[in-house]
Design a protein that fits this description.
This protein is mainly alpha-helical. The protein has eight helices and no strands. Helix 2 crosses helix 7, helix 3 packs antiparallel against helix 5 and helix 5 crosses helix 7. It starts with a helix and ends with a helix. The relative contact order is 0.15.
Amino acid sequence: METRDSILLSMRPEIPSAKITTNMSADECFQNKTLRPVVKLQKNLLLAAFRNYIAKHKNVFYDLNVEKKLDYIENAIQKDIKFRNSLKGIIIGHFTIDEFEIYIQNSSALNKRMMDIVKERLKDNLLYLDSVNLLIAQ
């Protein structure tokens, strides 16, 4: 019978560019080994959570230009603590027990790395967010 940890690890996508080298810091290793694959796995849920955030804030996001949309993403993650905690939960829930033990030892620095990755994923998906809005509006 498979354990929760083995199932979680087997679900994660491979990221060939996420190399682990001997001269990396422990935080960078954790980022490449754990955070990046989990964020990639959870991409669709993270996008759905952000679309829900946009809807709860009266869809003003869709009326902004590209630069303002990028600022909106940045501000949503930095300033809305409830939303930020929700995003962290989406990711932390996919940690193994060992990874969680590593995470709690340096959660502040790892949270910053985690949210930076999430911000980049959301920013990289602006076209997707706009196309979903067009489909919903029709």
